[in-house]
Amino acid sequence: MKNSFALLLICLFAGFTGFSQTQKEGRYFGGNLRFGSDKTKYDNGTSSQTNHLNARVDIGKFLHDDFAIGAALQMEREASTKGSKSRYFNPQLLGTARYYAGKEKAKIFLAGQLGLSFSHSSSLALAGTDFEEREGSTQIGGAYGIAAGAAWFLTPSVAVEGMAGWEGHALPKSNSNVSFTGLKIGLTAYLGPSGKKPSPSDTTGKYANYGGKIGVGISIFDGLGVPVRYYLSPKKVLDGGIYFAGIAVTEYEETQLKFGPMLGGGFTFFGDRFEKTSKQKIRAHGLALRLNYLTGDYSTTMLSAGWAMETFKKARSNRSFIFELGLRGQFPNYEIEGEPAKLSPGLYLRCHWNFFLG
């Protein structure tokens, strides 16, 4: 008997714009992340588990109204925790195309992709014996896919999007493999055409004097550290730092907190700043994307995406407070009781006091 279940599915598409939807000369960029776990139970009472991770980044440009071409880098990883403890890693370089149809508020679309697939797989040759040895092979072949979807525009430039389709590989030493992707749900946005006068939503108006280019601060909850923020513009922010952080590890039926140094970085997209008159504060809401790496014996890679809010006191333009809340996936790089640790989804919370230099 086989019983499969999805542990978690997250699809996030990120971008930024002040122009309308899918017009000619517009551009887009973003990405998606999916991770999960399939568990199979057999009639003899045994079971196996396979962990999945799929990450993707996209860029593209509209050659005509509603038609865009682009490029994507997609990376897929699978690992089983028992038996042969197989590993599978598959980066892909893809050319992409999209065609939209529909009205301003809602659009349907077709999407296709074609490119190169670099596949590496390995497993234990003599699993369960004293002479276990990992054997593997690498292949280069083709990758292709097609999907259909729908986009519902919350604003003229930001849409909630769902799509589903099929993806396949053609490798020299393997049979062609085509699989259904399942439903992907996310947030999509676009960069407007360059060289045009920006709309009011691309400016910060009378609040442009709040903040600066570089800020240094203190961050807690999502690691204790001193991050540095660099403002490409009031709406686009890079940050990075060194932190002291911990994770919960369950080993021999006992859960403990394990701490260590952590390297982290992020990119935040903010909307327009506005005044909260009753509280005498200036605020902006946005989307934060983060990548952290916890070092040490329990090294773990953490990918996060969440809502961000930056707040200035109206009387103090040289400091701000950033609050973030969102979803996180933890991808352990260690083993527990001789088996790879499981992927761990969850929530993340971050509070950051930021002080601008100059």
Reported for the largest beta sheet, the result is:
9 strands, antiparallel
Instruction: Determine the CATH topology of the largest domain.
Output: Porin
Shape: flat
The ordered H/E elements are: EEEEEEEEEEEEEEEEEEEEE
Structural class: mainly beta
pLDDT < 50 stretches: 1-20, 195-203
Strand tally, please? 21
Question: Over all CA atoms, what is the radius of gyration?
Answer: 23 Å
* Residues in β-strands, percent: over 45%
Query: How far do the termini sit from each other?
Result: 66 Å
The CATH class assignment of the largest domain is Mainly Beta
Q: Describe it for me?
A:
The chain is mainly β and 358 residues long. The protein has 2 domains: 27-189, Porin (Beta Barrel); 204-356, Beta Barrel (Porin), CATH 2.40.160. Helices cover 0% and strands 66% of the residues. The chain is built from no helices and 21 strands. The protein has strands at residues 27-41, 47-64, 67-80, 87-102, 106-124, 134-153, 158-170, 177-180, 184-189, 214-220, 224-225, 228-233, 236-251, 254-270, 274-276, 281-294, 300-313, 316-332, 335-336, 339-340, 344-356. The strands form 3 sheets. Strands 1, 2, 3, 4, 5, 6, 7, 8 and 9 form a 9-stranded antiparallel beta sheet that branches. An 8-stranded antiparallel beta barrel has the order 10-12-13-14-16-17-18-21. Strands 19-20 form a two-stranded antiparallel ribbon. A hairpin with a 5-residue loop joins strand 1 (27-41) and strand 2. The termini are far apart.
